[in-house]
Specification:
This protein is 49% helix and 27% strand. It is of the alpha+beta class. Strands 1, 2, 3, 4, 5 and 6 form a 6-stranded antiparallel beta sheet that branches.
Length: 207
């Protein structure tokens, strides 16, 4: 959420607005764990505008001692919205371009470490028409060449090219999400490589 507060859930049900295996950690100015809240699930209760924790436990760290507080159920407030528990890829893919741009700015202000995930989704939307055009050119070029074995060979070759493109896209996408690799280059490189391939195949097809 910020430099001091972190939240985690193992899974989230957006329809029921419930997060499972919830954890909230707060760190002090010395970057040491001040307290930790855990619960089997967290549910947003719109009627009362609060969160309901089941099997609640709070562990406070004080010098060399720990203070444990347990309750079967606790109604409380937090500084985050329930939508913050939604998986990041799901959030990005369900927003339109304007909402996504605004969402990226909010996450940057929060100091989110996985900001490249959202930026990658944004660039892929811009690149999608170009990708479709390139793969269409490759498909036309491949289908126009007569090979021994008939159309089955052309079909197999085309499917093979499509799988290789998906492989390239996934590899560079993972690099952008998990490392400091540029999301823009992760989108551009597969299109450039297969754009060159499409131009080469189309040129040979004309011959």
């Amino acid at each position: 959420l910020n430099e001091s507060d972190f939240i985690y859930v193992s899974s989230f049900d957006p329809a029921r607005r419930i997060g499972y295996n919830f954890t909230f950690e707060h760190f002090n100015d010395q970057n040491q764990l001040d307290y930790k809240i855990s619960a089997s699930n967290i549910r947003w209760v719109p009627k009362d505008s609060l969160y309901r924790l089941t099997s609640y436990m709070k562990r406070k760290i004080r010098a060399n001692n720990e203070i444990i507080e347990k309750k079967r159920r606790l109604d409380t407030l937090f500084i985050f919205n329930i939508e913050d528990l939604t998986p990041v890829s799901y959030v990005a893919e369900t927003k339109n371009l304007f909402e996504l741009n605004e969402f990226i700015e909010v996450q940057k202000n929060k100091g989110a470490s996985n900001i490249n995930t959202y930026i990658l989704v944004k660039y892929r939307r811009w690149a999608l028409p170009i990708t479709a055009f390139i793969l269409t050119v490759i498909g036309v070029a491949v289908s126009s060449v007569k090979r021994r074995g008939g159309m089955g060979v052309n079909l197999a070759f085309g499917i093979g090219v499509a799988f290789i493109y998906i492989f390239f896209d996934k590899v560079f996408g993972t690099l952008a999400e998990q490392s400091g690799f540029s999301p823009l280059l992760a989108v551009i490189i597969p299109n450039v490589v297969f754009g060159i391939l499409g131009f080469y195949l189309l040129k040979n097809a004309k011959r």
